[in-house]
Amino acid sequence: MPVTLNYATAQQVKNHPKVNVDSPYPDHQSTPNTPIFERDLTPEASWQLVKLGAAVLVDIRTPEERKTFGYVEPSSRVPWLTGSNKIRNPCFFIELSKVVDKQQPIILLCQTGKRSTDARLAALKAGYTQVYGVLGGVEAARHLPWFTDDNRHP
Prior knowledge:
Residues 51-149 form the Rhodanese domain. This protein is α/β, with parallel strands linked by helices. Helices cover 29% and strands 16% of the residues.
């Protein structure tokens, strides 16, 4: 049975024997009024939750970023920004609805963690209920087994 990442079961997630979701914020307790930036999960916790099937990872970077900086598998790809001017993708929620439903736990991944905050706020306003980000984005997740970088050389 998948772990549900809502506030009512936050302690169950934290205490799940296969998941380490320790917050980077000391003495942090999530409540429904938790500031949005504190909903970030560590890269390790994100990876474990995706690996367990408890959340869907959505890579919101541009195709160019994935090609240049590497990508994460498994992940769905729904760019938050589009075009050479990097404007907000007008089809973001249409594309997102094709890969997740509004009650499903979603972990958004961007390059550094900043863009995922904007996308998370918009997703929450659009009715998605369990939206999280990867603390530090791809830059912080490069060491994990899910990360693939065809440009990386040993």
